[in-house]
């Protein structure tokens, strides 16, 4: 429902997941109804027939009442655990009565949807119970705002968390299908790109598993980022079609909608109250996705917003006149907000669309959060209690606009004064920083913000004024040069004049004259010079000059006026955290050092983590069984500290043998997967060397592929016997997307594929070296590649990777790593043991000096680096010119040149470290021990552990276990 203004009371009925009167008895009755209806269903196609005769006969011996009683008994015991018969009944019910496909056949796509919907029934039962209990208890709740949630496939994860894998596998077998085949029908939800979104999804899993009251908020992208195709020209992008057949996991909440406004103007009434009027109005509508915890009834919510306009915005007259584009112009403007994740922002239109996306997420979410707070508070509403009931976490700078939006609602709609609203906001919001890269420390044009969100710019200026007052109070006005520098570095508004009232206070009308001691110093220095006629003249001229200086605070008219979103987050939030120990130190000592000096207690570290359910227990069942056997417990899935027990058995030959067999099974699975996806057939006898992540220069896929090229060149220079003796067979696997407008990253993708096309068809090399790029890398691809990997590469330029999460997933699966001292690599190496990690490269504290050395022309490249560049330029990998790519590694300065990411500097250390990898891999007992110790040392990197720290130190929420 569109509305001209925000009112909590008008949305009370909208923000509930279910009617509070819904209870478990209704759930049981619904299950009973579905069961009885399913008994009347007759299969319409041969694929629907029950194939297991023995199971069928056993089922026929039970009455419907007996079967449903087993189900409801399980409900009464706390968790719904149906047997395979009940599962069959539920799947058949949905195939018949919740149809997304025609009724004639029960083929795999239909089987997937019916299976997913049957699981969703059970999730909704727990979901409703969770929601109602949290409402009843009025607990403090955390809200996680993120532009990305990289969920991956939901079916097997939900079945695993509900501990129903056996029941569903048996049920689907009886219905003529295999559970794995059914699960493969599910597309990955295209709601994220890389580590930022996957971290958010791991956090939701852990929040539910640990029984914390929390919700996630994001956008429901129709097409997501893009689907990556690999052609002869490199990467090509096409729209992702993940919603083409619908999404069985989401529940549309057509009664949960909020008005969103853009443009317009601010009108001040006679009473001083400000109103934002006019402009462009859209509606944000909620779609809810249940997130189940592991071995718990707690099921939390991921609320995704979609955008639309009301029917009154459709111009029927224009349509009937044949002006169809004009007729649905408003509709298309609204809908396109949720079309694409990270639309290209090279154009003004692209920037505007991104900003609209971010504001839509923030405004809809804050309106929803406030409405829920008001409903829970009832007549005892006290806005000062808001931070005691609500914690808002901003996942990077994308949700920054929730800060001025919260202030806007509190002041413009709830009647609070600035100081009270500002204090409430600072106690409510917190900020996670994910990068030290300038491109990710968002800045927005003040003019664009002013046009799109005029009221928010007014509020941001008020925040900036508060900050200016704080800076002046801290540093005083005696040293104006120091004050000017602090204001320049710390202000939210960049290159924007100071308010007149502040200028009058800090800038004196008279000029500031440099003291006479400077003249005396000049005189003393001159007397040391030999007297000449010229010197006498120079001294006289210098003494005659009245040396004066004046500090001005004027903006530079040549530079743009910007709003710094990261600074806004730091100023407005009560906590700022980095995501790895080294990253947090860089945040404190470099990125936000001025703020850290001002508010040291505000800054803290929260090393990232990954859920051990999806990233070990479910994706690597072979290894999981071995871990359970040797630790003598399944508790490690919830308490990863139990993994440390494996250290005691790392030298045990029996464990090592079992470990290698599990790895072999995973590698054979990877072989089949690579053949299906790329057409390349590789041998599982080779070392699987993997680098999968977003394609970016700082992640240095270029260093990896140049190392492979060097390896290939050396192989070609040897005889067959020599190369077999020198080199361990390797399959080098890449995966990841380059952003559509990131030209250099797309060149790297093409280069990798061109090298693969040459190497993989070279009969001299055979199985000694293969290079495979897996297209359209996503969570599902990772779940196959990570368990089958022997070596993983995390080789970013030191100090540039905030944390990484793929490194944690690889370690958890017993994959040994080669990497730099960057991000979470530092902590992983500490935990798994220095001898079980292949380290190379410059360290973070050296990087700035090395870049300075390069700019001064002092860098001398290693001959092997020059050799490999010339080899690439020789045309051995095809006709495409790689001059631009190789040129980026040359020169001493210039945009896109001068090897900013130090590929050349680290290249010799990298190839020498790879020789150590070969040497270690030849000793399979040693390698297996290293693998075991990597899994044992990964205990620290569970997202459960990370969430406990967020809950304790930032959100201050407690677990709430359902009765």
TrEMBL record:
Cofactor(s) annotated in UniProt: pyridoxal 5'-phosphate
Subcellular localization(s) per the UniProt record: Plastid, Amyloplast; Plastid, Chloroplast
Gene3D superfamilies linked to this entry: Glycogen Phosphorylase B
Example GO BP: glycogen catabolic process
Enzyme class: transferase
InterPro entries per the UniProt record, alphabetical: Glycg_phsphrylas, Glyco_trans_35, Pyridoxal_P_attach_site
Cellular component, GO annotation: amyloplast; chloroplast
UniProt-listed Pfam families: Phosphorylase
Keywords: Allosteric enzyme, Amyloplast, Carbohydrate metabolism, Chloroplast, Glycosyltransferase, Plastid, Pyridoxal phosphate, Transferase, Transit peptide
E.C. number(s) listed in UniProt: 2.4.1.1
Tree of life domain: Eukaryota
N6-(pyridoxal phosphate)lysine PTM sites in chain numbering: 809
Reaction(s) this enzyme catalyzes, per UniProt: [(1->4)-alpha-D-glucosyl](n) + phosphate = [(1->4)-alpha-D-glucosyl](n-1) + alpha-D-glucose 1-phosphate
GO molecular function: glycogen phosphorylase activity; pyridoxal phosphate binding
Function: Phosphorylase is an important allosteric enzyme in carbohydrate metabolism. Enzymes from different sources differ in their regulatory mechanisms and in their natural substrates. However, all known phosphorylases share catalytic and structural properties. Allosteric enzyme that catalyzes the rate-limiting step in glycogen catabolism, the phosphorolytic cleavage of glycogen to produce glucose-1-phosphate, and plays a central role in maintaining cellular and organismal glucose homeostasis.
Family as reported in the entry's similarity comment: Belongs to the glycogen phosphorylase family.
Protein name: Alpha-1,4 glucan phosphorylase
Organism from which the protein derives: Lactuca virosa
């Amino acid at each position: 429902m569109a509305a001209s203004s925000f009112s909590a009371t008008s949305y009370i009925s909208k923000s509930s997941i279910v009617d509070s009167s819904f209870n478990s008895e209704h759930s049981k009755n619904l299950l009973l109804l579905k069961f009885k209806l399913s008994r009347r269903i007759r299969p319409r196609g041969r694929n629907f027939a029950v194939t297991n005769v023995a199971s069928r006969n056993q089922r026929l011996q039970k009455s419907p009442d007996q079967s449903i009683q087993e189900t409801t008994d399980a409900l009464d015991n706390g968790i719904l655990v149906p047997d395979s018969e009940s599962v069959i009944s539920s799947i058949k019910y949905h195939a018949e009565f919740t149809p997304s496909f025609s009724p004639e056949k029960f083929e795999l796509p239909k089987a997937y949807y019916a299976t997913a919907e049957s699981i969703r029934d059970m999730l909704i039962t727990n979901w409703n119970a969770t929601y109602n209990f949290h409402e009843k208890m009025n607990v403090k709740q955390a809200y996680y705002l993120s532009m990305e949630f990289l969920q991956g496939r939901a079916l097997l994860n939900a079945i695993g968390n509900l501990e129903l894998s056996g029941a569903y596998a048996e049920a689907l077998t009886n219905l003529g299908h295999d559970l794995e085949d059914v699960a493969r029908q599910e597309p990955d939800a295209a709601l994220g790109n890389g580590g930022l979104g996957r971290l958010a999804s791991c956090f939701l899993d852990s929040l539910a598993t640990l029984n914390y009251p929390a919700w996630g908020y994001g956008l429901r992208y129709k097409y997501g980022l893009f689907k990556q195709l690999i052609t002869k020209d490199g990467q090509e992008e096409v729209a992702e079609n993940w919603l083409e057949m619908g999404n069985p996991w989401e529940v549309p909440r057509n009664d949960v909608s909020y008005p969103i406004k853009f443009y317009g103007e601010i009108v001040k009434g006679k009473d001083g109250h400000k109103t934002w009027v006019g402009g462009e109005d859209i509606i944000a509508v909620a779609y809810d996705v249940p997130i189940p915890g592991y071995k718990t009834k707690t099921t939390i919510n991921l609320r995704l917003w979609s955008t639309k306009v009301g029917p009154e915005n459709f111009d029927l007259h224009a349509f009937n006149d044949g002006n169809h584009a004009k007729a649905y112009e408003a509709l298309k403007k609204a809908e396109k907000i949720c079309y694409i994740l990270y639309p290209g922002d090279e154009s003004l239109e692209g920037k505007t669309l991104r900003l609209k996306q971010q504001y839509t997420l923030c405004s809809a979410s804050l309106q929803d959060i406030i409405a829920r707070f008001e409903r829970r508070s009832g007549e005892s509403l006290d806005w000062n209690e808001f931070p005691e009931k609500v914690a808002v976490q901003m996942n990077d700078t994308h949700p920054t606009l929730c800060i001025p939006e919260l202030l806007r609602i509190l002041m413009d709609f709830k009647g609070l004064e600035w100081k009270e609203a500002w204090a409430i906001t600072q106690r409510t919001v917190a900020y996670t920083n994910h990068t030290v890269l300038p491109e990710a420390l968002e800045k927005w044009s003040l003019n664009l913000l002013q046009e799109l969100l005029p009221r928010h710019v007014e509020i941001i200026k008020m925040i900036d004024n508060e900050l200016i007052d704080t800076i002046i109070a801290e540093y005083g006005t005696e040293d104006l040069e120091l004050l000017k520098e602090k204001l320049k570095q710390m202000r939210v508004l960049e290159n924007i004049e100071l308010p007149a009232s502040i200028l009058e206070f800090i800038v004196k009308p008279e000029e500031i004259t440099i003291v006479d001691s400077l003249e005396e110093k000049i005189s003393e220095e001159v007397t040391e010079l030999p007297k000449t006629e010229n010197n006498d003249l120079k001294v006289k001229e210098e003494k005659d000059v009245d040396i004066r200086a004046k500090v001005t605070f004027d903006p530079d008219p040549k530079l743009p006026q910007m709003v710094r979103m990261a600074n806004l987050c730091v100023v407005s939030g009560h906590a700022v955290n980095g995501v790895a120990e080294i990253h947090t130190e860089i945040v404190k000592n470099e990125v936000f050092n001025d703020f850290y000096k001002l508010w040291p207690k505000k800054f803290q570290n929260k090393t990232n983590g990954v859920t051990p359910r999806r990233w070990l227990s479910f994706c690597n069942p072979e290894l999981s069984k071995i871990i359970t056997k040797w630790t003598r417990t399944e508790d490690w899935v919830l308490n990863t500290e139990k993994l440390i027990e494996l250290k005691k058995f790392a030298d045990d030959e029996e464990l090592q043998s079992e470990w290698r067999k599990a790895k072999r099974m995973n590698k054979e699975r990877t072989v089949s997967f690579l053949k299906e996806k790329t057409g390349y057939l590789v041998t599982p006898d080779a070392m699987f060397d993997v680098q999968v992540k977003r394609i970016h220069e700082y992640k240095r896929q270029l260093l990896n592929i140049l190392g492979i090229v060097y390896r290939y060149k050396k192989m070609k220079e040897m005889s067959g016997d020599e190369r077999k003796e020198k080199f361990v067979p390797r399959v080098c696997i890449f995966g990841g997307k380059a952003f559509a407008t990131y030209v250099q990253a797309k060149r790297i993708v093409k280069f990798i594929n061109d090298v693969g096309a040459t190497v993989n068809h070279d009969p001299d090399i055979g199985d000694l070296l293969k290079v495979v790029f897996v297209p359209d890398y996503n969570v599902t691809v990772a779940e196959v590649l990570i368990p089958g990997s022997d070596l993983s590469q995390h080789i970013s330029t030191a100090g540039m990777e905030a944390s990484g999460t793929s490194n944690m997933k690889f370690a958890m699966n017993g994959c040994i790593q080669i990497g730099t001292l960057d991000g979470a690599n530092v902590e992983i190496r500490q935990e798994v043991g220095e001898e079980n990690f292949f380290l190379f490269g410059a360290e973070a504290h050296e990087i700035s000096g090395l870049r300075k050395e390069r700019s001064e022309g002092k860098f001398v490249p290693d001959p092997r680096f020059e050799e490999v560049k010339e080899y690439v330029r020789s045309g051995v990998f095809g006709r495409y010119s790689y001059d631009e790519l190789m040129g980026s590694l040359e020169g001493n300065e210039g945009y896109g040149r001068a090897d900013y990411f130090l590929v050349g500097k680290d290249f010799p250390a990298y190839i020498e470290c790879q020789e150590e990898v070969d040497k270690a891999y030849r000793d399979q007992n040693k390698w297996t021990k290293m693998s075991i110790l990597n899994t044992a040392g990964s205990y620290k990197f569970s997202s459960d552990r990370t969430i406990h720290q967020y809950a304790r130190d930032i959100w201050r929420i407690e677990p709430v276990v359902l009765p």
